[in-house]
Amino acid sequence: MQVKSDAFLRCSKCRKVLFSKEFERNLRVCGSCGHHHRISADERIRITFDEGTFQELDRGLRSCDPLEFPDYREKLEKGAKATGRHDSVIRGTAMIEGRPVSAAVADFAFMGGSMGSVAGEKIARTIELAIERRIPAVIFTATGGARMQEGLLSLMQMAKTAAACRKASDEGVPFVCVFTDPTMAGVLASYASLADVILAEPGALVGFAGARVSAQAGVGRVPDNFQTSEYNFEHGMIDAVVQRKDLRSTLARVVDHLSANL
Amino acid sequence: MAKTWHEWEKPLLDLEEGIQKLRDLVPKAPPDKAAQLEKQIEEFEKKRDTFLRVKYGRLGPWERTLVARADNRPYTLDYVRAIVTDWVELHGDRRYGDDKAMIAGLGKIDGISCVIVGQQKGRDLKQRQFRNFGMAKPEGYRKAIRMFEMADRFGLPVISFIDTPAADPGVDSESRGISEAIAAGMSSLFGVGVPTIAVIIGEGGSGGAIGIGACNRVLMLENSIYSVIPPEGCAAILWREPTAGDKAASALKLTAQHALDLGLIDEIIPESFGGAHRNPAETAKNVEEAVVRHLRELMVYDRDTLRTDRYAKFRAMGVFTADEAFTL
């Protein structure tokens, strides 16, 4: 998204010039090509949950660079500046059309929404709180995958979050996941794919191997819509691709149904 | 920086080849000449041993990566042959096909019937292609899941041998849901009420490894690696230079010692002098000893304890601080 002036901006997908106000009113969806541009976690919370019901938890959790990985601290600081948070996942409790949920939302602007120890911990706590209170867990993903800068610790977050999902399943507590652009690699291959119901925004990048890793592995020609929400929908990996404007109501309906016997 | 194990071990391999050539000469040589040759061989062997001690005495993360990938390193089926009796290999995921990169079967270890799964690499080009370089597709993980569920039904422990650069990243895998298959593998392992042990014998390649690796006990061979991403991939993403694998290997801290120090694995299994490939039988014996010991420890627990123990183990993984008076 390229800002032309305060009043106009240009869609980075179709290059059309848009009115800023209209673009915001459209929830940052291009009125011309329908491309769903990324939104911040705070914006996502605002447009999804009942007004004023989101209560943030664990805002103080932060990474302490356990591997002393090159440039990691700088990247954490940059992410904090961009999002006003210590890490990529924001979690808390909220209501959606009057139904309580345990919620987590990832912010791509914080190190590509990557999952290290803090994100993994917050996701596990989100699901555990849902189990404890017997309310649905609702998680929005926006991530490049596991965070390389925490090495094996990040890989273990896949197991940790998967364990929590398994527990929720065994306890009969629902988990709904919404894939937003992008939902990749270590997150897709762990808790995200273990949700009872999976919704996705149109055109989101959804896949296992990122482009640079695929190129390394010598993956050749790929289909046109490869690794999109629509591709995953066609292959049975996603329940529904839902326009951003309809997400809140769809999510509320799913939550309502799954809460019926909690 | 050496790029392959061959390149890195070349001086050693040359020396070993020379020794073999001298040995071949001995039977044909006259007695006095033969004695001389024997002496020469002995000297060369001493040289080789010193070389080995020096080279293997200070292996860095990148060198271990090369050793973990060595093409004559023992693979999963080599360990099965060495330590498993009454082996019956089982095939297919009952949904799509049979993945040759993931082997599965029933066998006894120290007289205990177990379900065994693991990635299998190939040694020559043909075998490597047949085994897809040890990169399993969704059907591989779904075959493993079928085995985990069967193990749970019949109270058989699960032994998982991990040796994969990564799960298969191709279009086939993506279209059949490789991510879901890996996630489901972990989920299945968290559900079973039987002892589960993972042994990383070569490459513990990210999601491909953890998909069959979320076990009660996780053991690693001394020169194996366990990483969230291949070092070359990490270098390609962070610095856009896939050749900086050595730099990335150091930064990722992917060795067994690092994993143990971080509390993410339970034990390091020693390899034979100069790497598992120099004495596969001795290394297999060490693997057997460790697996049996952990198996006997776990077998006293009931189903619930095994499940809760596994949950607690992985739940505790992660390093962070809770800064209640946050400044942001």
Tag the structure with descriptive keywords.
heterodimer; A: 262 residues; alpha/beta; 2-enoyl-CoA Hydratase, Chain A, domain 1; 2 domains; 8-stranded mixed β-sheet; 3-stranded antiparallel β-sheet; 12 strands; 21% strand; B: 328 residues; 14 helices
How many structural domains does the protein architecture of chain A include?
A: 2
Shape of chain B: globular
| Strand tally of chain A | 12
Average pLDDT over all residues of chain B: 94
How is this structure best summarized?
The complex is a heterodimer of chains A (262) and B (328). Chain A contains nine helices and twelve strands. Chain A is an alpha/beta fold and 262 residues long.
Protein architecture, described:
- The complex is a heterodimer of chains A (262) and B (328).
- Chain A is α/β, with parallel strands linked by helices and 262 residues long.
- Chain A folds into two domains: 1-37, no CATH class; 39-259, 2-enoyl-CoA Hydratase, Chain A, domain 1, CATH 3.90.226.10.
- Chain A has nine helices and twelve strands.
- Chain A has helices at 20-25, 41-48, 72-83, 117-133, 151-171, 185-188, 211-217, 229-234, 244-259; strands at residues 2-3, 8-10, 17-19, 55-57, 61-63, 89-96, 99-106, 137-143, 175-184, 197-200, 206-207, 240-241.
- In chain A, the strands form two sheets. In chain A, strands 4, 6, 7, 8, 9, 10, 11 and 12 form an eight-stranded mixed sheet that branches.
- In chain A, α4 runs parallel beside α5 (151-171).
- The model of chain A has no long low-confidence stretch (mean pLDDT 94).
- Chain B has 328 residues and is α/β, with parallel strands linked by helices.
- Chain B contains 14 helices and nine strands.
- In chain B, strands 1, 2, 3, 4, 5, 6, 7 and 8 form an eight-stranded mixed sheet that branches.
- The longest helix of chain B is centred in the first third of the chain and has 27 residues, at 31-57.
- Chain B starts with a helix and ends in a 6-residue tail after the last strand.
- The relative contact order of chain B is 0.12.
- The mean pLDDT of chain B is 94.
- The chains are: A alpha/beta (262), B alpha/beta (328).
- Chains A and B meet through β5, α4, α5, α6 and α7 of A and α7, α8, α9, α10 and α14 of B.
